[in-house]
């Protein structure tokens, strides 16, 4: 059994959670739409994550839609006391699987109620508001209206804590004017480091930062430098990429996803990998080109 104690803990909301968590998105079918090919394996992966010590699962009712939340409930309900489930709202899927904004008060309320029903919960511990101003990446614009709706649902007792996803630093500050931000979830990894300053600012406020696509997402991270570091320390490139994130800042919580037990074990084992300073310096150069601070674009990234 994999031991993930090396990842350490950090506070999410009011709970200390293991910094190595699990993201459920890949449990749905292709394109995060429809059921998985092997539902029994999907449930076994969830069970395996809990058995290994994972106590933080990231999900959403628009994964499937409804599929991942239903699988989580089938596999894990009644939930262990130490398990903390984080979900997100603001989108819906059409009949072809397209991602559409769903930010009206009625849509957000329905999304929270759907998450509660499909997960079998009376209260959602953390709900992230995902900005849909630009679905492909953070873009400036006010999120005051949907944030206010979620604050009202929090007052009704349907939500304990609120977070943000796919947002800018300005949007984080705007939200903090009217309520606490429990976490921020943005895309970030070895090759996509536009949030470096935001991570450091959040660490100063003891707010967790949760990178989605920590391994590159639908285009997995590829780099000669990453491969060479992995070979020298006898690990896989993806383990190195996850270990780098854990060492990047203590407020980073990881939610790598997978639909197989073997990949789950590989991901979780990265919790015990310590990268030497010399190798960290090599990895940092993946992002920084010789000409300056620009994303490195070679070798398939």
From TrEMBL:
The keyword Nucleotide-binding does not apply. One of its GO terms (cellular component) is cytoplasm. The keyword Iron-sulfur does not apply. GO terms for molecular function: oxidoreductase activity. Residues 19-287 form the NADP-dependent oxidoreductase domain. Keywords: Oxidoreductase. Coiled coil: none annotated. This is Predicted oxidoreductase. It comes from Kushneria avicenniae.
């Amino acid at each position: 059994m994999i031991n993930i104690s090396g990842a350490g803990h950090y506070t999410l909301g009011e709970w200390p959670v293991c910094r190595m968590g699990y993201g459920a998105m890949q449990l749905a079918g292709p394109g995060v739409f429809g059921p998985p090919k092997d539902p029994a394996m999907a449930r076994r992966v969830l069970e395996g994550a809990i058995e290994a010590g994972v106590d933080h699962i990231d999900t959403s009712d628009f994964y499937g839609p409804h599929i991942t939340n239903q699988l989580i409930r089938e596999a894990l309900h009644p939930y262990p006391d130490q398990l903390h489930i984080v979900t997100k709202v603001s989108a819906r899927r059409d009949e072809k699987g397209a991602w559409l904004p769903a930010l009206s008060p009625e849509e957000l309320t329905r999304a929270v109620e759907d998450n509660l029903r499909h997960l079998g919960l009376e209260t959602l511990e953390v709900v992230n508001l995902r900005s849909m101003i630009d679905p492909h990446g953070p873009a400036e614009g006010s999120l005051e209206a949907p944030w206010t709706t979620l604050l009202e649902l929090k007052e009704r007792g349907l939500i304990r804590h609120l977070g943000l996803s796919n947002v800018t630093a300005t949007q984080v500050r705007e939200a903090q004017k009217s309520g606490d931000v429990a976490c921020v979830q943005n895309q970030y990894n070895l090759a996509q480091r536009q949030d470096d300053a935001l991570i450091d600012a959040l660490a100063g406020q003891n707010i967790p930062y949760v990178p989605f696509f920590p391994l590159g997402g639908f285009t997995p991270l590829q780099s000669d430098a990453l491969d060479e570091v992995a070979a020298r320390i006898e690990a896989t490139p993806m383990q190195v990429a996850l270990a780098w994130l854990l060492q990047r800042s203590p407020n980073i919580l990881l939610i790598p996803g997978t639909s197989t037990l073997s990949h789950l074990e590989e991901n979780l084992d990265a919790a015990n990998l310590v990268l030497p300073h010399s190798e960290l310096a090599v990895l940092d150069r993946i992002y920084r080109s010789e000409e300056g601070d620009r994303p490195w674009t070679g070798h398939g990234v």
